[in-house]
Amino acid sequence: MNKIYYFDHAATTAVNEEVLKTMLPYFSYSFGNPSSAYTIGRRNKMAIDLARQRIAKVINAQPKEIYFTSCGSESDNLAIKGVTYANTRRKKHIITTKIEHHAVLNTCKTLEEEGIEITYLNVDKEGKISLEELENAISDDTILISIMTANNEIGTIEPIKKIGNIARTHKVLFHTDAVQAIGNIEIDVEEMNIDLLSMSAHKFYGPKGVGALYVKNGIEFKQIQDGGHQEKGKRAGTENVAGIVGMGKAIEIAYKNIKEHNKKLIELREYCIEKLQSKIQNMKINGSMTDRLPGNINISFPGEDSTELLLKLDERGICTSAGSACNTGQATPSHVLMAIGLNNEQAEGTLRITLGRENTKEEIDYLIDSIVEII
Ligand SMILES: *Cc1c(COP(=O)(O)O)cnc(C)c1O
Fold first, then answer.
1. Predicted confidence (pLDDT) per residue in 306-347, tens digit
2. Percentage of the chain surpassing pLDDT 70?
3. How far, in Å, from the CA of 199 to the mean position of ligand 1?
4. Can you give the residue range of the structural domain that contains 266?
5. 202 CA to middle of ligand 1, Å?
6. In angstroms, rounded to a whole number, what is the distance separating the alpha carbons of residues 127 and 259?
7. What is the position in ligand 1's atom list of the atom closest to the CA of 178?
8. In 244-340, where do the E strands start and end?
9. Of the candidates 223, 241, 256, which is a domain's last residue?
10. Ligand 1 centroid to 368 CA: how many Å?
């Protein structure tokens, strides 16, 4: 196979070799069901609990506040539907934003059909919400605020600590979809006043098909999948032991040298942006230049068709994304790009490049030369 130039780390990442090694026994001889009473079962329950500890430690939570799920989307569903269905005071209002991932947006849409009122906050040109608009939207009927930590398309990081403070002041629960943030930026659920937080292993060099939800101790939420008593009755189904073990290892590795990794990523990002700007006149960088995920570059090339650009880059072995992986193939322009005020022409010419830990300067040179040639 020819070399792959991978610049789509916001879509998914490759499993780290050490993570894979840690997982392998759980596909073969360590196959016991964690709910079984005999040794090879109990041992796997301990392996799961070690992963729970590792995840909790990174976000400054307690292990019992971590619930394993099958993915980031399920964590978002469980968080939002879970607290809504558990809300016994019959409150009827949720606040979210226009730029959430579809796992949050479509969950809210379903709840809307069930009679819950949803406020979709606007964002500014950089993709940031207004704290004032948030505070004004809160009423006695508000159950939950759900605002993503960092956006998957434009990389903008929201003012999470301030949002958490507002939620706490008004005694409203605060959920954050941190699927893009975990593994990339440091998060402390206590300091940031976060009540619920979603994450997904495949976004930080862990396996696909495993996620986690943090729920602050004492917060009631209803399970959305009925069955056995796994995850303290909050998420039925025999645990994905290998996946969970891999997730625990992956998060530990991701945060081990996070400051150095991010410094390198930001240098690569700035190198890429500057070089592109020097070669292409008509382009626009989207998102915030200060509060931004280290590896995210989102650029509009007005007049270009990003789907065509994507395919031509693919012919050269380069993986990038038009807006967001979830939107690729859809005819409608990205809801995120519309929300930050791009016109159709700009949105249609938008390319997302997301760098990861294995990318090199040489790879970026090849990417830029290819973009320049194609355009
Ligand atoms: C990838 C992603 C999700 C979905 O996670 P899955 O594990 O793929 O279901 C949710 N939210 C954001 C912000 C994401 O980037």
1. 999 999 999 999 999 986 444 455 567 899 999 999 999 999
2. 97
3. 8
4. 5-13+258-374
5. 9
6. 24
7. 13
8. 284-285, 296-300, 318-319
9. 256
10. 28
Cα-Cα-Cα-Cα dihedral sign, residues 76, 101, 61, 171: negative
Ligand 1 pocket check: which of 13, 68, 71 to mutate, most ligand atoms within 8 Å of Cβ? 71
- Cα distance between residue 162 and residue 167, in whole Å: 9
| Residues 353 and 154 sit within 8 Å (Cβ to Cβ) | no
Question: Which residue minimizes the CA distance to atom 6 of ligand 1?
Answer: 72
Strands 350-354 and 296-300: antiparallel
Residues 29 and 138 in one domain: yes
CA 364 distance to own-chain centroid: 24
The answer to whether the CB of 300 falls within 8 A of the CB of 355 is: no
Block residue for tokens 């360590």:
30
Q: What is the Å distance from ligand 1's center to 200 Cα?
A: 7
Tallying the residues shown for the chain, one arrives at: 375
Identity of the residue numbered 169? T
Nearest C-alpha to atom 14 of ligand 1 is from which residue? 179
Q: What is the pTM of this model?
A: 0.97
pLDDT in the model for residue 305: 94
CATH of residue 67's domain is 3.40.640.10
Q: Which atom of ligand 1 is nearest to the CA of 12?
A: 1
> How buried is residue 158: exposed, middle or buried, by Cβ count under 10 Å (0-12/13-18/19+)?
buried
Ligand 1, pocket residues at CB < 6 Å: 71-73, 101, 103, 148, 152, 177, 179-180, 200, 202-203, 211
